[in-house]
Structures
1.
Amino acid sequence: MGRTPCCDSKSLKKGPWSPEEDGILVNYINKHGHGSWRSLPKLAGLLRSGKSCRLRWANYLRPDIKRSPFTVEEENLVIQLHGSLGNRHVAMSEFEIVGRTDNEIKNLWNTHLKKRLLRIGLDPNTHEPITPSDPTTAAPTSPANRHMARWESARLEAEARLSEESSLFKSNSDFFLRLWNSEVGESFRKLNKEDKTICQSPILQTSSSTKCGSVSAVTVDSCPNIAASNQVEDTECKSFKPCTKDPINASNASCSNKSDDSSDTTLKLLLDFPIDNDMSFLENVDPGIYLTSPSEDYL
DNA sequence: AACGCATCCAACCGCCGAACT
DNA sequence: TAGTTCGGCGGTTGGATGCGT
């Protein structure tokens, strides 16, 4: 019973890839496509596991990978998306951040962005300001830091929104085609077909850290207009507060049992995203604190 | 120059669901 | 249907490199 093993794993090579191996893999895939990763190493003449070949190709050799450093816009987008998607780096890389691998995004998050959030007083897991009552987090939460945290949240929110709006209007048809073909579209299709709540969809079930109830509260906090106008009354996911500034969240907005939700609604939610962020909290604040604001002090 | 520490990132590991026999 | 492998994902590791003392 069961499949036969593809090869003797003991004879497989591990560790860094040599340029020769890279060349063999690239040539083979260019000629034949990767096909079955399981049989690729044998057919290509590599002493590697199919898994290793797939990783090498996906994370390094693929021709559409950007090798340049992350831009500030990309970094901000990653932070923003992390608030919505959690650690679903693959979804970020495939859907939103073109040319970046999930591994790159993962590394960026773990080495830079997590620390950046901590430094401005935000919990990287929840994206909420760290409270003094939380004994596991030692970051200071002085009034100045809290202002900085909210300031940074609002700034990231606005930048991500502008970025997405611009890409949305640049290629509307392409955007919605991608949206429909993505997990989001699949969720809509399943929703209509099975009359189930999207909270039970594989998209959300597979998310380890951002299941239905853990969409970024900071996002909502920093755009109260949305929290008030777009918050979905939720029977399945008690704490779900979608901030529908992005397609993913737009889909999450159907987290209620309203199975008649449609892409029209999603589009409306997207387009209804308020232009004005509530920056009133910046009033009555000593302007001096912005001299060391995060935007001037990128880590 | 030598050392220790911090950071980066490619690659591996472990797990899970799908696919296969 | 059961047992096994495959493919894919998120988490983690460890060697290479940079930087400060």
2.
Amino acid sequence: MAFGFPRHFNLFATLEIVTPTLNQLSHVKSLTSLAHNTSHTEASNFYSSLIQQCTRTESLRGLGIVQTHMIKSGYMQLSIANRLVDGCLKCGSLSNARKVFDELPERHVVIWNAMISSYIGHKKSKEAIGLYGKMVFDGVLPDEYTFSSVFKAFSGLGLVYEARRAHGLSVVLGLEVANVFVGSALVDMYAKFGRMGDARLVSNRVGEKDVVLFTALIVGYSQHGDDGEALEVFGDMINQGVKANEYTFASILITCGNLEDLTHGKLVHGLVVKSGCEAAVASQTSLLTMYARCGLIDDSLRIFKRFHHPNLVTWTSLIVALVRNGREELALIKFRKMIRDSVVPNSFTLSSVLQACSSLAMMDEGQQIHAMVTKFGLDRHIFAGAALINLYGKCGNTEMARSVFDALIEIDLVSVNSMIYSYAQNGFGHEALQLFDGMKDLRLEPNDVTILSVLLACNNSGLVQQGCQIFSTIRSNHNIELTRDHYACMVDLLGRAGRLEDAEMLIKEVKNPDLVLWRALLSACKLHGQVEMAERALKKVLELAPGDGGSHVLLTNLYASNGNWSQVIDMKSTMREMKFQKNPAMSWVDVDREVHTFMAGDLSHSRSREINETLEKLFEEVQILGYVPDTRFVLQDLDEEKKKRSLYYHSEKLAIAFALLMSSKKNTIIRIFKNLKVCGDCHSWIKFVTRVIGRDIIARDAKRFHHFKDGCCSCRDYW
DNA sequence: GTAGGGTTAG
């Protein structure tokens, strides 16, 4: 058979420089008339050679010209045409490959596979599945290559039904478990769907399981909360003589970390070294994470030092590890170093550093990172978004939290929970309830975190009835498992509202009531002067935690506020005998990223004299406005004047005076922090102070935020 | 000629 093909062009096929050859080829019309006697083999060799050269030089244009020539010359032999598509794919152009592919009169299964796997490699699962469907429709039978790649597209898109149909076809064609590639792709797919039962069924049917299949199974179990089973699978794998590789190590170390199982973690560490996988980045990163999860952050830091050029994931893992271990400041230092090293953070990194800022309530630093989040276009996405909402919530800025929330492209359960929690801790109970009610419209089902946040919101705003109603609805629906935290919140809510009997009844409902519950009751008793129940509660607390100093202090304070000084003395001597250490009250302020700490009556600060002067002046002014020292909050048996004097030097007052001294800017908000609950006298005093200075004061205490403004507090005096 | 598993977040 002859083709419209120029015989002398064979010469060009051997030329090193492809482009000029192709330029001449483009004059195809005149050339085709030159010869008509070329053999099939010659044509095939000619085109193959040209395609090969175009592919090597990544000349897409060249491939296009070859295609045109092939069409015009009437030569479109299957294997060569496939090579043309393959050439486009190798040049990285999926769209060109698809164009050529679509124009082919006939397509071999290999080229279908190449197209499908390229789509998957480019994360275009929809196109891959579309092509798979077209292939089946066209009557081309998928083979083991097709299945081993296409299942990934189904799991990527969450198409369970379609995936099961494809799985069915693979069974019909006898390919399901005959080929370990297909088997492991299926295991991986079902694992990603979270259908571990199906994953295991497929795995059991595969005869010769290899390391990839085992790894897919391990990851599946680990990512769906069954780390114990993941560890079992790893053991089975080793017992069957299948050697773990860097992928397996990376996964199983995460499993050990999740289980906080240092014994197995160290064992695997040994295997990593023995297998010569120490240089593998992913397994080293997992090793770092494993040690951090087991609380050995110094080991994590040591592992990190071994990286010469840590990548983004490694940096992020380190930052996460530090935040998890309470080393927020170091996490921020490492983050800055990462930026200096020109590693671009992603939403994982940014949400972790934002979490660090939240824990430290570092508003300024957090805002700088917010700017960075915006720069990278991540401020409207759920992950960084939720972290920002938490940050602003924890810094007492609910308006900013809300504006981040409102700008989110997508609202998910976690972002709603974060927003409700922000409202809760800042005492905006009604806003929290409104958002909670609005979840139905957003088609979001509340989970245990939602309920805890909304109960906390009711608690912090004194919305007793609403809280009780939500609690009893959840309790009767059984949709959400109520934990001790939920009960503790309710005990606190009822207790603070004075419904002490109801609170005590609720505790009795809990199977094994823990410390937190009885402590909540005890503190409610203290609030309402209920000595008898308080003594009962303390007894329970001490059964559970014989060394609990805090509860002794609570009861002592209750005796003191009732004026039972003899019992106070008894309690104090008991506490001395038992060597209880009272957690001392402490307040602090952050001035120019330096933390200044104050204890009650603490005059050791270098600017103590000026702090004192500021305080004296403030006292004069607030008294003119009507402030009266409330000596009920002095828990020592002193005369009235001494009591008044001792109130002067409460840590929160010292911190505010210092903050005032240090910040001259009139419009800025003063932020202070206290490790215990803010004292009642100080609360009233701060309200007056905001009227004197005309500035807002935000105080974060152990339980919540108090936003003082124009003589009022956001908690409406209920806390 | 084409194929499967891994490390970081609320």
